[in-house]
Amino acid sequence: xKQTLSIVKAKQAWAExxxxxxxxxxxxxxxPQERVNWAANLLMFCMQYSPSLPAIDRVVExxxxxxxxxxxxxxxxxxxxxxxxxxxxxxxVDPALKxxxxxxxxxxxxxxxxxxxxxxxxxxxGWELVPCVEHFLATISVPAATEGGIQLIFAQV
Length: 157
Fold this sequence. Notes:
With 157 residues, this protein is an all-alpha fold. Helix content is 71%, strand content 0%.
């Protein structure tokens, strides 16, 4: 019942353009493993529309092995360095790539937080995935990707 109510709230928030609220409604009822799977699936979906980057591939690989989740903090740092370089170059970097980097950052945060290790990232990192994915989908302007991405956002884990 709670999961169904969350999905209803999330879909309403999506329809109203309140993507962070949508992310919160979907993310909060999930268990840690579900959060990691959901985040990694969103990242992998978006990766198919961008060139492969080892730092982002690493985030996905960490999601597959719960005993490695503690390593996601270092993976976040690696992706964050790339994000900072992309932001400094601004117009010289593909906007879709910048969006993908933000998705990878938040996915790494979700993975690390699920590890239970000390000094977790902000608890709302998972909420941020929905606005980041929505921005990515808007940036690439591929109708099939948008439809598939929206379905994946609301996929029940």
